[in-house]
Every structure is written in structure tokens, then in C-alpha cells.
Amino acid sequence: MSLLLILLVLQQRHNASKDLMSGCDWKTKVEHLLPVIGDDIAIGTLISLTISLLKEISFSRRPALELDAYIVPKNCHQYFAFQFAMKEINKNACLLPNGTLGQQFLDKAYNEMGTCSGTMTLLFTGDGNPPNYICKRKYKLMAIIGGLSFHNSKQMPHILNIYKMAQLSYGSFDPALKDKVQYPSVYRMIPSESAQYVAIVKLLKHFGWNWIGLIVSDDDSGELLLRTLIPQLHQSHICLAFKEIIPIVKDHWAKYTEETVTSNNKMSRVCSTISSTDTDVILVHGDSRSMEGLRVILNFNEFVQMNPTEKVWIITAQWDITSTFDSVVFTPKSFNGTLSFALQTKAVEGYVEYLSTIRPNDNFITAMLWTTAFLCSLPQYELYMYNTTTCTGEEKLSSLPESLFEMRMSGQSYSIYNAVYVVAHALHAMFSSRSNNKAWSDGGTWDYRIIYPWQLHYFLKNIRFNNSAGEEIFFDENGELGTGYDIINLVTFPNRSTHSVHIGWTNPQGPKGKDFIIHQNAISWNHNFIQKSPRSRCVEGCHPGQSKAMREGKEICCYDCPRCPKGMISDQTDAEFCSKCPEDQHPNKNQDQCIPKHIIYMTFEEPLGNVFTSVALFFSLMNLLVVWAFIRHKETPIIKANNWAITCILLFSLLLCFLCSFLFIGKPGTVSCILRQTLFAIVFSIAVSSVLAKTLTVVLAFMVINPGSRVRKWVRNSLAQSVIILGALVQVAICTVWLSIAPPFPEYDKQSQTHEIIMQCNEGLDMMFYIVLSYMGLLAFISFTVAFFARKLPATFNEAKLITFSMLVFCSVWVSFVPTYLSTKGKYMVAVEIFSILASGSGLLCFIFLPKLYIVLLRSELNTREQIVRKTNLSNY
Questions:
Q1: What is the pLDDT of residues 495-531, one digit of tens each?
Q2: Can you say whether the dihedral through the CA atoms of 159, 164, 165, 170 is positive or negative?
């Protein structure tokens, strides 16, 4: 391209050297050049109303100066917006009131060569464009608006930088223009392309599309997108089903036949990829020039193979897919439902009315628009259409379909409209500054002949105003507008007409949550998605209760969905990992949410609690029955033969043992937790000590019978009482130490059970609990040993056998209690302890007292002194 620029400048210098021999009186001849309005200062504009045939330029011979080109009706908005803005400014008494703003318009920016030539024409005389010769101009050119594509915008600054003239680009997204070292004079009337990349990612994430196709243009713009956007897609877990670079079509008028597509290997591969892909969403990036290859492919599929490519197309703002010079090549079914990013535009008051006043005889531009859009001829402009009638001039632009011409500003024309106002406001600010600054002028007035284009840059960089649509216009530090993009839904109809629906927008300056807005209900999808919404994913997605597991060697979007491990959940689709519930919650059956755990403890209402309550009450009543019977028959020989005091202590301690089981039933509290273990331990220690005292009393009683026995003095109540008191005090001391060090307390056990929270008593210090049990076991073992050795005493007075059996049951219960207690949790642990209390207490009650109760109540004939003495003598004999 630099070589092309050098050749063009050399040619212009050669032509200028011939014309300068006759001075500055050569005839000006500029294609599509409109008359200059005003005689003060002017704005130049170089826009693209036409599309060339894109014939490749060969450097083997001198390139032709003229190329065949065809007008694009929708591009005429660029010209109309420029004219409309100029008329508004020149009528505005508050903006540049001391002069008329002139204009210089040129349509020659359809390719790089035209851009260079047009820029030289705007800067200089226009006849051979001799550099620096502008002697016939009555105006001073202060800025140029131009640069539809990055092909055009990158050529203009190389020339304009020499003169430090500001260029306001209205359509180029090339980020290289941000480089203020290489392009110090460029101001872009469009937002940053990086904001569009962010919006693309947000759009895909909004709809949950993570498996897309990508088609880009075969140029620097496409390469930049691949280098910039793909890492952002991967970072958001969006994968590419395919990536294709569309070849550039050299001839717009190529026939859409099978030979056209298959003759190009690249185009054939792209066509095959699009037809066979399993993705429903395809992102397309490129401008109207570079995307003609894709249009050829889609037309081939739709009109030749009768198989429309019904996908969800996402088009970047560089390409207006409805902007074409021939409506025949538009593909209605394929592009129906397309989502397109577009430069933001606002409704400008008076613009529609202005378009309604346009007539074909206004100038050559309107004449070309009329003949192209209405397919009629205008002889006065030597514009003829084959086999058509002459234009009447009464045709209405509002009757044209949207794909051909819209009665509203496009994004590009809105940018041109704002660009004109930017220059006007900058000039107004500059003139106001000069009139108020004595160092700048003499007498407080200004003279346009002593101002220069480079002086405008300071005011352009700091410009800030509200346009007639109410939008604030200003440049950021990169010389770009701080705006966003509109999101458009393209709806097509069988007659190949289109309708663009505004469904959302992006605003990088907006607060979080309002920087990307889309109205999904306003979208009309392609015919292929009438029965279902577009779902473009490599896998359908993991449901709640599942998590993603990557497949080896596959894209990150292609994964398996195993169930969450037991005890974990995932409450969203496509969860990266499963998580644990809070301690007081547990996963539901589907493992997609946490639900509160039930608090469990032994209650009186549940069946197990009812059973224990009934058993405890039964043995308590039995205990009371024994007490009543013993009191009622206190004077009988068999009752007198027992130590009455020890018997009463044992019976009442057993009664308390049965009753203390109720402390283990119900909601644990601080008091119940302290009492349940300590009271149980002390009462049982008294009972076992009473059994031990009773056993010693029986043994000593038989030893006293022998003449001359020395143990007679021990057979007193004081010995039994001492044993009971000593045994109880030791346990009381242990419990006192326990309560002073680490007393039991109620707690919630949230980890032991998956679905329940166990409300239980924490023993505080487990070692003290086992010391209490060990001491109680020691007393029981001593009682069992003593009773075992006394088991052969005479049967009538021999309680040793009964005590032996009772203590055997007692020891068996509590020996089995420890491992069972340690292996259970929650209310079942409590149930084990209650069972042990009731079983051991009932064993003592039944084996020691039921035989006596049987004799007292049912066999009273055996309860006589004679019967007892007889049996004793028989036993001694």
C-alpha cells in the first residue's frame, strides 16, 4: 500500500508540473464535487456511496484511474446526514454566528487508491492535485470527515499528518488508529472495538451459547479479532466448533452457481463447514467488502441448492448485511433472525422531514439514488436504466424497503452528523477563545486567514456538548467516543424485505447491571427455531445436582456430568464443582439444594420414648409394690431376717434409678445434662453399695452363729451404713471433680448424621464419665465376688445366691454397655443408656426382692419362725 501511495504522489507531481506552466488558471474538474457554500472556512468529507468491482490491482502496469462502481442506496445517508448537519449549523445563530461554514464533498473512498486520490483532491486544487497549490480556494479547509473502513482510514492520515489536519473517522474500527504517535490527527466517531468484544461475550453468555462457529475476513481486521476475541471466549468457557477465514471475492457479479463456489477451494471448504456444523450460532466479523464471499456462499445454498443456511448469525458492527447495491443478492431466509451489533444512533428531529423533501433533480447524488432505487432513468443526468421508464420525481423514498433505504439515520450517518457538529463546536470554542484572548488577536476579532488546522486539535480533544438528540458527545483519551453499540434483530420476509428491530444496547460507561441490556422477548428467531429456542452447546449442560468433568483431549465446552458426591450439591447448571451444605443443612434427594436438618433427640412422643417411659413406670410401680408389701409385713420373720435399713435404702435407690431414666428422655438442657449422668451415677453407687453392704451383712450373720466368733462385733448397722456412705461419698467426690473441671452441657452435633442435627449432652470430659462407670463397676465386681463365695450358705437366710445372680446381670449389662454406647449416635446412644439403667435396676429388683415378695404375698405358710429354724437346722445337719 505504501508503494501505491508513492506511485500516486509521483503521478500527481508529474501532472502538476505540466499544469503549473500556465499558472493557477486551469479548469477544476472533480468527480461528484458539489459547489462550495460560503467563503469563510469549510469542512471536507470523503465518503463511500459506491462499491467498486474490487478488481485486483496489479503492479505490472500503471493502474487505471477510474474503476467501475455502483451506488449503494443506503450509503446515501452518509451524504444526507452531512448536508442536514451543515444546514442546521448555518441556520443556528448561536453556533459560529460570524461566518458561514462551507463544505467540500467527495465520493471516492471505495478503495485505497480512491481514498488517496480523494484526500489529495480535498486538500489541493483538484486538477492533477499538485501538492500545496490551493490558490483558487476561497475557503480554508479545517478538518476532513472520512474513513468508512479500515482500508480507507489508514490511508488518509499518512497524507493529513503532513498538514496536521484533523481526520474524523466515522466507520473504521482499526485499533491501530489509537496510536497517537503514528496517527496523532485521527479522531474516531465510533466506540472502541474492545467494547464490542466484551459485548459479544456477554451476548453469548446471556443466551448460554458456548459452542459457536466463527467466520472472519481475510485481512488485518479478521486477524486482530482472532488474536483479541478468542482468548476472551476461552476465558468465558466459550468454544469454537469451527474457525474459517472467508476468501475475498474479486467480482461482485459472479454467478451463484455450483461452479462459482466449487472453483474456489477455500470457499468450497467454508461452504461444506457451514452446511455440516452442529452449532446453531455463527459469529461473523468483516465489512461489506470482505464479506461478499459469505454472501456468495449463502446465496448458493439458498437459491441453487434450495437449502437455506438457517442459523443464528451474530454480525459485528463492521458489516451492515442489508447494505447492498443489488437487492437480488440478499438472502432472506438465511439471515432471518440475525443478531447484529451496530453503531448507536438516535432519532434526530427534522431528519425524516428533510429526507421527504429530497428530489431526483437536486444534484447528481440524488439522481443516482433515484435511478438505482426506483429502477428508472434520468436523461438530464445521462443516467439510463435498461428497459425502464423515466423517473417522474414523485417517487417517495419512504416507499422503499428497509434493505434498500431507511427513513432514519444509520449508525454511520449518525456518526457523520455528530462529526460535523464536533468540528463546528471546536471551531466555535477556538474562535471564542481567540476573541477573549488579547495575545491571540488584535482588537478582539478573528480573521479566518490567520488560523490553521493544527490549532483545532486542542479544542477537539476537549470537546464536550449535547447534540440535538440529547446525547453527550466527547472523546476519551484514545480519541474515541465513549459510547457503546446497539443490538439489532433482523427480520426478513418472503418478498426479501427486511425490518430491523432494536432489541438492546451496550454502554461501557454504565453501572454494573446496566452496561448490557437486551430484551429477549422482542427477538424474532429464524424459522428453524420456531418450535424451540436456539441452544448452541457442545453438550446440553449439567443439571443442578451434577458438576462438570472435563473429557480428555476435548474442548472445555465438551464435558461429562457426573452426579455430585454424597453429601454435596450443585444448585446451578454447568456447575464447575459441587459444594458442601452448611452444617445445619443437608442435600435434598436431587442434590440441587440444601434443606434444613431435622433436630432429633429422644422424645416422650415417639415409640421408643413411649416404650422406655412405660418400662420405667412399670418397674417404679413394682418397686413401690415391694416397699408396700415389706412395710405391711414388716413384723413377719422373713422381713425381720433382712436388715430393714439396708433394704429400705436399696429399694428407694432403685426407685430413683428407674425415675432418673426420665432425665434422658426429652430435649436436653443444661440442668438435665448435668443431672442425668451425675444423679444416675450417685444413685446407682448407693444401690450397689447397699447390695455390697447387704452381702457383707449376710456373710457376717452366718459367721456370728459359730461359737466364739470374733466377727460378732461387726454385725451391726454401723458397718452396713459405713459401707453405703463410703461407697456413695467416693462417687459424689468423683462427680464433684467432674462438674468443677468440665461439666456436661447440651450441644448440636451437625456432622455425625447427614440429614439430622443431633441434640445431645456433651459429657464435657469423657474421661470423667468413664471413671464414674469404672467406679460403679468396681463396686459391682466386689459385690459379685463376695456374693459368689457366700452362695453355699443355708437357703432360707442365703441372699448371696440371689445377689450373685443380680450382680451377674448388672455386670453383664454394663460390660456390654460400653462398646454399644460408643458405636451408636444420637437418640440411640441415649436409648442404650436408658436400657442399661432399666435392665440393671430391674435385675437387682427382681433377683433380690421378688422371691421374698412371692413368699410374703403368696406363700405366707413359709413365712414362719418354725419354718425358718427347721430349714436352718436341716442345712446345718
A1: 777 888 999 999 888 888 788 999 988 898 888 787 6
A2: positive
